[in-house]
């Protein structure tokens, strides 16, 4: 089993655009999973007065600089197919992109909370990263995959590429 997360502290950058000048107050609730031996959902209320003039916090600037590359920035293009295997779907993904480094890993997430995706098995074939994962409905019903709603993240050597959606392959 693979776990992807953060230790100690995490900065989640958020860019806010105000409609007009003047101070602003931002409040809400962040829902996250906090894990040790098991993961527990946690609701974190927050409220902050934003500084007038849009001064940037250096921690936010550093988090934005350390974000994953987009598909365009990484010159990556993803295609995928989903074939029925009787109980669910066999998702096959091809990401054409230059290697990020040794031991590339792939994470596939769906925008559909009712869809379960297994941990992908990935290998490099020349200029493409090939990955396979199983997909099933969490309620045991029929399975459908919205290719546009997939988020594919490729990780290697402290670098990441995030690809939104995949074309028909």
Automatic annotation (TrEMBL):
Domain of life: Bacteria
Name listed for the protein in its UniProt record: Thiol:disulfide interchange protein DsbD N-terminal domain-containing protein
Species, as recorded: Rubellimicrobium thermophilum DSM 16684
Biological classification of the source: Bacteria, Pseudomonadati, Pseudomonadota, Alphaproteobacteria, Rhodobacterales
């Amino acid at each position: 089993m693979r776990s992807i997360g953060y230790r100690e502290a995490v900065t989640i950058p958020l860019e806010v655009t105000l409609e007009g000048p003047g101070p602003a107050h931002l409040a809400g609730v962040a829902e996250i999973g906090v894990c040790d031996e098991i993961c527990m959902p946690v609701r974190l209320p927050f409220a902050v007065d934003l500084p007038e003039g849009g001064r940037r916090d250096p921690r936010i600037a550093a988090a934005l600089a350390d974000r994953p590359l987009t598909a365009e920035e990484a010159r990556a293009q993803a295609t995928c197919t989903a074939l029925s295997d009787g109980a669910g779907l066999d998702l096959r993904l091809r990401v054409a992109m230059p290697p990020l480094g040794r031991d590339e890993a792939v994470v596939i997430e769906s925008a559909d909370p009712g869809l379960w995706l297994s941990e992908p098995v990935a290998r490099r074939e020349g200029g493409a990263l090939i990955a396979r994962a199983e997909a099933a409905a969490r309620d045991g019903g029929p399975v459908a995959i919205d290719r546009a709603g997939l988020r594919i993240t490729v990780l290697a050597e402290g670098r990441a590429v995030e690809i939104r959606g995949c074309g028909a392959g």
